[in-house]
Amino acid sequence: MKKGLFTSVLILLTFNLFAQMVPEETEWYAPVPPKVNPGEGPGRAPSDAIILFDGVDLSQWKGEKGDAPWEIRNGELTVKPGTGSIMTRQHFADVQLHIEFRSPDPEQHHGQNRGNSGIFLQSKYEVQVLDGDHNPTYVNGMVGSIYKQQAPLANAYTRNGEWQVYDIYWRAPLFGTDGQLESPAMITVVLNGILVQNNFVLKGDTPYIGYPTYTPHGRLPLMLQDHGTEVSYRNIWIREL
Ligand code: MG
After folding, report:
1. How far is ligand 1, taken at its centre, from the CA of residue 145, in Å?
2. How many Å lie between the centroid of ligand 1 and the Cα of residue 103?
3. CA of 141 to the centre of ligand 1 (A)
């Protein structure tokens, strides 16, 4: 009985509290979000994006030694096997990234040797690029995976030789002044319009051998991997968040 009475009083008090409120109490007007104009057509860069590759030049990129050594043909950027990975001159933390890729066609190899490249957020955390067309491999290393940490929610790859579209939403890890991890990295990945990583919390970096670990860092370049295959890229743009 006492409990019932208490609940009734609580409901009455709550009702009374809300009854005294006005709508304006839960509305605010500042800060006003910036105006960003969408790109002209699906996948096109919005007005505030940094264009990292538009089919013409590689001025936004560098190689392991000097300028970026990969090739531009027909508006596509293609890995030049053996020349090493390339990275942006600009350093980033939280970003929205749009990038399109294509595996070589025909491609004779299988598994991890077929259309392998990679998109390394902050040079350390790999979203796998791999041919996903009838190409079995370990699932936490297939296309759409966070390399060796998390398999994708689906295989959203289309066909070998066709362009694939990644949209990646990245929250950088934060470290305290003592170097301790304050908040881990988190990623959402959409491949060809299909959600393949849903707010996945990373356990650390994405090494080929061994377990993930975090090492403190600040803003770092975006990196594209040379894994010995002539993977092509196009329409790369990024928004700082
Ligand atoms: Mg890779």
Report:
1. 10
2. 12
3. 8
Distances, alpha carbon 171 to alpha carbons 38, 156, 179, in Å: 22, 23, 18
Number of H helices, E strands in the chain: 1, 15
Write out pLDDT tens, residues 5-56: 666 665 555 556 667 999 999 999 999 999 999 999 999 999 999 999 999 9
Taking 90 as the threshold, does the pLDDT of residue 187 lie above it? yes
CA atoms of 77 and 150, how far apart (whole Å): 28
Going from the Cα of 35 to the center of ligand 1, the distance in angstroms, rounded, reads 36
Domains along the chain? 47-240 (2.60.120.560)
pTM over 0.85: yes
Angle CA 213–224–71, to nearest 5: 160
Instruction: With CA atoms as reference, report the closest residue to 111 among 234, 232, 227, 191.
Output: 227
Q: How far apart (Å, rounded) are the C-alpha atoms in residues 101 and 234?
A: 6
Whether pLDDT at 191 is above 60: yes
CA 5–ligand 1 middle distance (angstroms): 64
Q: What share of the chain is helix, strand, coil (3-state, %, to 5)?
A: 10, 35, 55
Between CA 99 and CA 67 the distance in angstroms is 21
Length of the chain: 241
